[in-house]
TrEMBL record:
This is DUF982 domain-containing protein. It comes from Phyllobacterium ifriqiyense.
Length: 108
């Protein structure tokens, strides 16, 4: 499979207090298998589904990165809800600003 890079994100691991920097879809897949925190299978399934959709070309790597961050903060987002939300707000225009603003409003 072709690795797809994205702007680095930092995720919590299953080891208390440890964080990991992820910069690609392949690293994200390894993280999900080896270091995803907790036992919440719904959030884990959503993250796995998003990675598969990225490899299929349905989701961009940047959207998957944002979704992974949101799954650790707001487990209610599905990949389809995320895509629908950003299609209505024109994801391509100012995506980093909206993503950063969303993350700033979201607390752990």
């Amino acid at each position: 499979m072709e690795d797809k890079p994205f702007k680095e994100i930092t995720l919590m691991t299953r080891q208390l207090g440890k964080m990991k920097v992820i910069t690609s879809i392949m690293q994200a897949a390894e993280f999900i298998v080896n270091e995803w925190p907790g036992t919440d299978t719904e959030r884990l399934d959503i993250a796995k589904h998003a990675l598969l959709e990225c490899y299929d070309g349905t989701l961009s790597p940047g959207i998957v990165a944002w979704l992974l961050l949101m799954q650790q903060r707001k487990p209610t987002f599905t990949s389809r809800q995320l895509v629908a939300r950003h299609q209505t707000t024109n994801w391509k225009s100012g995506a980093r600003e909206r993503c950063g603003a969303e993350l700033n409003r979201t607390s752990l």
